[in-house]
Amino acid sequence: MPFFSHKLMVRNRNNYNMQVKSLFVAFLLILSLNMFAQAPGKPLSAEGIKGESLFKLNCASCHAMNAKLVGPALQDVHLRRSEDWLLKWIKNNEKLRASGDKDAIAVYNENGKAAMNIFENLSDDQIKSIIGYIKEWTPPVKVGPVVGDPAEADSGFFSSSTLYILLFLIVILMVVLLILRRTKGQLQTTVNEVDGISVIEPTEPTAAQKRNAELKKRSNPTIVKLSIGTVVALSLALYGYKFGATEIGVQQGYAPEQPINFSHKIHAGEYKIDCKYCHSTVEKSKQASVPSVNTCMNCHKGVQAREKYNGEISPEIKKIYAAMDYDPDKPNGQQFGANPKPIKWIRVHNLPDHAYFNHSMHVKGVGLTCQTCHGPVQAMPVIQQYATLQMGWCINCHRERNIDVENNPYYEKLHAKIKAEKDNKSSNYSKYYTKDGKINVSAAQNGALECSKCHY
Amino acid sequence: MANKQTYWKGEDELLRTKDFLASQKNEFHEALPLDEVLSENNLGLSANRRDFLKFFGFSIAAVSLAACNKTPIINVVPYLVKPEEITPGVANYYNSTCGACSAGCGVTVKTREGRPIKVDGNINSPVSGGGLCATGQASILSLYDTERLAGPQKLKDKTSSLVEWSAIDADITKQLTAINASGGRIAIVSGTLHSPSTLGVISDFTAKYTNTKHITYDTIGYGGIISANLTSFGKQVIPSYNFDKANVVVSFGADFLGTWISPVEFTKAWASKRKVDSLNKESKIIKTIQFESNLSLTGSNADYRFPMKSSMEAIYITSLYNAIAQKAGVAQLPMVKSGELAGSAIKQSAEALWNEKGNSLVISGSNDARVQTVINGINLLLNNYGTTIDLDNHSNQFKGIDADFVQFATDLNNGGYKAVIFYNTNPVYNSPMSEMIVAGIKKAELSVSFASNADETALECQYIAPDSHYLESWNDSEPKAGLFQLTQPTISPVFKTRQAQESLLTWAGLATKPLVDPFANKTILTQKAEASIYYLYIKNKWAMMGVNSDATFNQALHDGVYKINAKPATTPAFSANLNAIVADLDKITINANAVDLVLYQNVSIKDGSMSNNPWLQETPDPISKVTWDNYVSLPKALAEKEKIANGDLVDVTVGSKSIKGLPVFIQPGQSNMTVGLALGYGRKGKIGEKGEFEAIGKNAFPFVTYSNGNYNYVTNGVKITKAEGNYELAQTQTHFSIEGRDLVRETTFNEIKENPKAGNDKMVPHLYTLWETKDYKKDGAPNHHWAMSIDLNTCTGCSACVVSCNIENNVPVVGRAEVRRRREMHWLRIDRYFSFSNVNKVNYEADLFIKKDYESEKITKEKGLEAIDNIESKKADKATYDHWENVQVVHQPMMCQHCGQAPCETVCPVLATTHSTEGLNQMTYNRCIGTKYCANNCPYKVRRFNWFRYNDNDQFDFHFNNDLGKMVINPDVTVRTRGVMEKCSMCVQNIQAVKTKAKRERRIIKDGEVKTACQRACPAGAIVFGDVNDQNSEIHKLFMNERSYRVLEELNTQTAVKYLVKVRDTETAKKA
């Protein structure tokens, strides 16, 4: 705070007031912007939040709310179908179709006869909460585009981080405002003294003033200041913690520009090439691995997309040839050239070194689809990080997913124990069974939340 | 029942010296450097409040700014053409042969994405039997050694310059041709070669350059045995020793469990005869009797160990011959001198041997052919040939004949050789004739070395044509007659090196590829043209041996081993004149009052060829627990007499040769009137503390003497004089104290035959616990409970497991200075406990009551220390120290015990260490904030704190801070950073990998499928790991075994590691 001389102060008094006023207007403006930013939809209920996470886990890889992905858009599906029908369909659509349900067959045909996954692992309650989420869902005001730098990933102006920054600014501005007001009051007094204007003390204090005076007398100013300070410090710390926990190092939406403009939308979406054709080690290794360039060459020796480039080879496919030092005009000659240059892809999904993740366990061992974690890759022209890849995200899945106790002989002993619980009518029964008597053991119950499952 | 013996870790603890007691009272080993920190001007608390605020503000701002970097962009670079056999993230295994020494253990090499990261024993190989010694384990780091030469070198005045292969090939070929044409002699000096193909290459080379002579020179020679077998049986070889067929073995100074000939093979065989389960009255284990000067690894595991003066060995051995001859009723040898050791050791040994006639074994570490001939005579009297000794299927592991090399050195020095080629040998460093060879090399017109590092010999030569590491090479070997093994490359050459065999073929003009496949008579395909010349040479050689199909060859390559039927072992005819030999031996004059110098090999450093390997340097000697140095091992009696204390510097003089300033270590068990000194030290290497080239220890090879056609490692008459100064050896042993607790349990063989619970019949203490008892079997999923059992009876303390653990788990090397500060990082250490063989001789307790009072804090610190001073000054006169040479040793591997009720877990403020439902004590590095509470609360003292970021700190310039050395890092294990605690995880990465595999393949885990690194390394099979919840598993049976016990059971920690009681085959149990 610069210190002004009295004279200067006096001369600029009016100016000063103007400044304060304009600041105040700006503040209001920002506040209103802020209100606007918060506009999208009603907040979800607790049930809705539960449904949302289930939806993301199970459905989002094939369904969006207001757009057709692999499956149809689900907005207002509860209006189109009865809950009972939905339950049956989601649990086992094959069975429903086999039973001759007309609607079911129609849906199947409408969507290019692509069968939906079977979700017998979901309980009725879980499906109901998913439906509940669909009911509650309202379209967001604006969805930021997801291309480019990670910093731009949340590039919608009203994204949460902008919101935090604005809130922070508002708090600071309010503090500035308060200080200015106080300074102004003091200056006024001083000016009055200088000008010889004596402020007329009201002869009789009003009731309210009396009450205030009484309060002031009873409260210790230091304690008041300290408590306000503590509250401010705490809220700042809380904000810092939240920022650290949810923002730093989290690259959800990260979609860097790759050296070759490879589109999963074309390969996996349009041409329906199985993920495992290229990411061939996903069932054997901890790494799904970026395919070696000779895998690309399997098709692209022939596929050159000349039709789209006036008879020229697509510039992107040329990059593959450059990497291999391959001459497409002499396909019968030397297979690959002498000066190959490996392609430096930019890694999108990146776990820290201290976290061990094994693809083969999840894909082959558990049978998850790639989309569960990587999102609707088949709809992504540029590959992007779909999940947060935070530990909480891993843990949630480990809590919610069930292990295949009945069919995987690895769990032989556990299965025997669980069966014994049922036979003995033990108090642990509810731990391992759903209400309708089906085995229901989450990965977490088998120790999947323990540190050394991933950290060693 | 009280302990039968008092165990102690070191002299200090036994004698309860003043320093020891004072240090036990301190919480920290070092005083905290508070004063130092506070007195520094710029950061002192003397700064005023404003300064403090400035610093505070600045630090906060700096930290925030430093944290504000952008997330780095990480690239993925896939293969262009992925090799079919490589799956990123999945290890490949190849069978090969260890090249660390010429014993030729079969190994299995683990590679990840084409780089070798671990070497373990190949289960198919009869030499390694699935185990591998510390040196073999560590040899993988030599591949990633920054000191390796980047390509062929031309030397001038010891400075080398890189040249092209074609250039040196042209030079060398031209000179060789000229020398050969002018009739000049060419020498190829090598270590023992038992590769049929390499020998073939040398004979092809000789056929081209007809004046070539091949001289075999072993750093540590066994020429005595080889010559003795020539005189005795007409066979110039080392026989195969079958310890697994012996019921009693008497060894005179041969450290067959540590360093002698083929220690891995012998340990395996010896341990197989130490099994003490389901015994009956007739059961036998291998009774081990050791006569020696230095306390060796074998001595520490012997049932009876008799300290002797090694210079008198010939006399004792002849006495043993005579004692047995008496029993056999044959003529005795005419030895005038005769000797017997305390406790009629010779007589007892003769008795034991005679009782097991035909199933016994007598060996000697002596390199004197005459002594070895007498040993042959004893074994013949005992009818051991054909059972425990096999001359028909002999060993090829060492072939050097010392006289040949001495002749070569003399000739070379006389200008008798115009060209000399050194292959896999370094005589300038390790020969006592070093000076002669240096002078001789200068006289030769051409001198070439195949050394991969610029070693002492290579630096004297004109050219260095660096050989590839054995993990980059093709080769074959025949360590034992009829046993063939293959070596295959597991990585492309890291540098521009070339196999020595290929170089020799090139210089002989034979490096042309055969156009026809030796096996199928097929024209070699184009892609095979990439195969190395030497690979095709090996195939040709094997085709000549009778392997004539790709299927057989590839099967041999897959297994690593190819055997042809063993010949039946026979008893050979004896042709030596023992009477004449003994008469000759009788003439040796031995001064009984002079001190013997006994040179030995350290179990990890061995002959020093890998002395720049930091893993080996930091592996503590199994007996003294000293790292990073060699030292004069002094008996207590001599130390007291000469008034030399631990850590004093002494000058050692033998005749005209002398080494100044060697540190002293007073070694319990060292025979009186002898001192020990390790070979293999004193080499300069870039693993000094600050990246400078500095020698580690002192070179003792000049003390090796040559007489009667063989090198001698024992010298009678050494002078030890106290020098100025002091030196603190970096020792890991005394870092903790036992506090009189019952950690090791032992019994005798006779007792355990009567009572399987012998030695383990301790009262189970009342178990109280503060915490709610958690039953992991009940509450969690009943899948696994991982556990480990360690058999103290077969554990020899060889330290292979320590090195294996370091490699598997990316354990950093900390260096000498940090070991002195007790900051070694080893997850697995081997505790070594001494006890006196005859404890009743000395009653320490009476003298030491004041110390006891002091310990129990009945008297004040000042008064206590003063009183102790008085005692010590008095005691020095009256004590004798003869009993110090008679100690017994127990080795106890100690790692995280994975307590079911872990003391560490309850004190961690951030839950960084927790328990898993599978019985593991988990350590989560990314949660740890480094309070070290857990380490304080751990009763086993197995937790290690990362004081530095060893992997990026140039103050720790070993292998972890450079790009090449980092190649050996196991990618499945986190490299820990500064400020976190770490400890044994029971190789959880392997557990998880096997579980994942089983779940994927939808099956249960087989017993023995999960193996820890220590278990895989152990040649004795002392470590067993598995799931105790599996009722049929081996670990479950071992947990139910009567011998199994938990360390510190009274703490109710419910450990997942159990030990099996040690059993000694001694006659009577000592009662306390």
- The count of strands of chain A amounts to 1
How do the strands line up in the largest sheet of chain B?
6-5-17-16-15-7-8
Computed Rg of chain A: 32 Å
The overall pLDDT of chain B, averaged over residues, is 84
Overall structural class of chain B, as computed from helix and strand content, comes to: alpha/beta
Question: Shape of chain A from CA axes?
Answer: extended
Q: Classify the beta-strand content of chain B into a percent band.
A: 15-25%
| Rounded radius of gyration of chain B (Å) | 30 Å
Low-confidence stretches of chain A: 1-40, 142-156
Q: How many domain modules of chain B?
A: 5
CATH topology of the largest domain in chain B: Alpha-Beta Plaits
Q: Helical region count of chain B? A: 35
Succession of helices and strands of chain A: HHHHHHHHHHHHHHHEHHHHH
Q: Indicate the CATH architecture of the largest domain in chain B.
A: 2-Layer Sandwich
Specify which chain pair forms the largest interface. Answer: A-B, 56 and 49 residues
Q: Which spans of chain B of ≥5 residues are poorly predicted at pLDDT below 50? A: 687-692, 839-849
What is the top-level CATH class of the largest domain in chain B?
Answer: Alpha Beta
Please describe what this structure looks like:
The complex is a heterodimer of chains A (456) and B (1072). Chain A has 20 helices and one strand. With 456 residues, chain A is mainly α. Helices cover 50% and strands 0% of the residues of chain A. The longest helix of chain A is centred in the middle third of the chain and has 36 residues. Chain A starts with 5 loop residues before the first helix and ends in a 24-residue tail after the last helix. With 1072 residues, chain B is an alpha/beta fold. Chain B has five domains: 158 residues, Rossmann fold (3-Layer(aba) Sandwich); 164 residues, Dimethylsulfoxide Reductase, domain 2 (3-Layer(aba) Sandwich); 37 residues, no CATH class; 145 residues, Barwin-like endoglucanases (Beta Barrel), CATH 2.40.40.20; 274 residues, Alpha-Beta Plaits (2-Layer Sandwich). Helix content of chain B is 29%, strand content 19%. Chain B has 35 helices and 45 strands. Chain B has a seven-stranded mixed β-sheet, with helices on both faces. In chain B, strand 29 and strand 30 form a beta hairpin. About 2% of the residues of chain B have low confidence. Chains A and B meet through helix 14, strand 1, helix 16 and helix 19 of A and strand 1 and helix 33 of B.
